[in-house]
Automatic annotation (TrEMBL), chains A, B:
SUPFAM superfamilies xrefs: Homeodomain-like, Tetracyclin repressor-like, C-terminal domain
Assigned keywords, A-Z: DNA-binding, Transcription, Transcription regulation
Pfam families hit by this protein: TetR_N (PF00440)
Alphabetized PANTHER family for the sequence: HTH-TYPE TRANSCRIPTIONAL REGULATOR BETI, HTH-TYPE TRANSCRIPTIONAL REGULATOR RUTR
Alphabetized PROSITE patterns for the sequence: HTH_TETR_2
Compositional bias annotation for Polar residues: 1-10
Highest taxon in the source lineage: Bacteria
Domain HTH tetR-type: 23-83
Name listed for the protein in its UniProt record: TetR/AcrR family transcriptional regulator
Location of the DNA-binding region in this protein: 46-65
Keyword Phosphoprotein: no
Organism of provenance: Rhizobium aouanii
UniProt-annotated stretches for the region Disordered: 1-25
Length: 212, 212
DNA sequence: GTCTATATCTTGATAGAC
DNA sequence: GTCTATCAAGATATAGAC
C-alpha cells in the first residue's frame, strides 16, 4: 500500500518479458478468439479453430495461452482496460450520463462482433460454474453502483425528485440496455437498438423533469 | 380447413400410440432435461446425465427422444402449449395487459428453474446454428406483434397519445423483461425482479396518462 | 515460438440382445 | 422399453523435438 506501483507488478513484468513478435501473436489470437466466441460462445468454441484462424497449430496457441480459460480471461482483462474510462467522463451529471449511454450504443452498433461476443459471454456466464461468472457479476455490480451514485447525487442536488431509488433506476437502465442489445443481435437488420434506447431515455428524462 | 380436427393429426396419433408408462417416462425426462439445461445450457449439457437423473441408461433415453435436438424441441413444444393462452386474456386492454405482465413475473419468480432454463436457452439461441434459434425468434416476433397490437388499439381508441409507436413500445417492454430476468438470475436473493417491472410499468402508465 | 505425435476424456449415437 | 457393448468424433492438454 506504500506505493501505487506496488500492485500489479507480476503482470507488467510478464508483459515486459515478452518479445515484440509474441505480443503481436497474442493480439492476433485474442482477436480471433473473440470472433469465435461471438459465434459459438465460449464453451462451444474449439481453441483449435482459433489456432487455425491465426495460422497456428493448437500447441502453438497453447504456448501463448496455456489453457482455454486463460484465453477467455485475457479477453475479459483487455475489455476491462478498454472500458475503464467508460463511465468516468459522465459520472457527475445525470443528463450527461444518460446521453453518454446513447453515444456508447451508437458506437456499439458499429462493432457488432464485439457486442455479440460480450452479450453471448454475458448470458453464458449465468451457467453454473462458468469461468466468467465472477467477472460479469463484478462488472454489473460496479456499473450499477456508478449509475446509482449519479442518480443519488441528482437527488441530493435537488435536480430530480427525492422519491426515486438510484439503485433500482440503475438496474432498470442496465436491464433495458442488455435487453435491447439482445433484440438487436437477434435481428440486426431490422431492429434499431440506438433508437430504442433514445426513446426510452428521452421518456425517462421527461418523467424526471429533465427534458429538453 | 373443412374441420378443426384436420390439422395436427400426426402428433395426436403419435401420442395415442404411446403407452401410459412411456408417457410418464417422457414427462420425467423432459423435466430432468430442463433442470440440466437450466444449469449448463443446452450445448453444454450431456444427455447421458439426464438419463442418469431419471434412472435410465443413455440408450434407454434415446429410445424416447432419438436425438438431443429432439429432446430440446420437445421441451420448447411443451412450453408453447403451456403459454398459448398467456397473452390471450389480456390482449384487448392495454392497462390489463401491463398489469398482467406483472402477474406473470410474480408467478415466474416462484419457478426459478424454469425461468433460468428458458433465459439461458434464449441467450444461447443467439449463437450461430443453434437449433432453438428459429423457435425463439418466432416467439419473440409473435409476442412483439401481440403487444404492439394492443398499443395500437389503445391509440385508435383514443385512450393514449397518438404519437406512440406500438411496435417500438412492445420491443422496449420485451427488452425490459428480458433484462430484468437476467439481473435476477444472476443474483436471485438480492434483486427484486417483480418490483423492478412494477416500477417500470407504473412509470410507463403515468407517462401514457393511464395512472391509477 | 512452433511443430508432430500422442494421451486422455467426453459425447452423441448405433447394434443387437432381452 | 430397457440394457450392454461399442463406435466415431471432437476436445483439451502434454511430451518432446526443432
Amino acid at each position: 500500500m506504500a506505493e501505487v506501483s506496488e500492485s500489479n507488478t507480476g503482470q507488467d513484468e510478464k508483459r515486459r518479458r515478452r518479445s515484440r513478435k509474441g505480443e503481436a501473436r497474442r493480439t492476433e489470437i485474442l482477436s480471433a478468439a473473440m470472433q469465435r466466441f461471438a459465434e459459438d460462445g465460449y464453451q462451444n468454441s474449439a481453441i483449435g479453430d482459433v489456432a487455425r484462424d491465426v495460422g497456428l497449430s493448437l500447441p502453438g496457441l497453447l504456448h501463448h495461452f496455456p489453457t482455454k480459460v486463460d484465453l477467455l480471461l485475457a479477453i475479459l482483462d483487455k475489455r476491462d482496460l478498454e472500458c475503464e474510462s467508460f463511465i468516468g467522463p459522465y459520472r457527475s451529471d445525470l443528463r450527461g450520463l444518460l446521453k453518454g449511454m446513447v453515444e456508447v450504443f451508437r458506437r456499439n452498433a458499429e462493432m457488432i462482433e464485439v457486442v455479440r461476443a460480450f452479450a453471448i459471454l454475458n448470458a453464458e456466464s449465468l451457467m453454473k460454474g462458468h469461468p466468467a461468472k465472477a467477472w460479469f457479476l463484478d462488472r454489473a455490480t460496479q456499473l450499477q453502483n456508478d449509475i446509482a451514485a449519479t442518480f443519488d447525487q441528482a437527488v441530493t442536488d435537488g435536480s430530480i425528485d427525492g422519491k426515486i431509488d438510484g439503485k433500482a433506476m440503475a438496474a432498470e437502465l442496465i436491464a433495458v440496455m442488455d435487453g435491447l442489445q439482445m433484440l438487436w443481435l437477434r435481428d440486426p437488420a431490422r431492429f434499431d437498438m440506438v433508437g430504442g434506447l433514445e426513446a426510452y431515455i428521452s421518456r425517462l428524462l421527461a418523467s424526471l423533469g429533465l427534458e429538453g
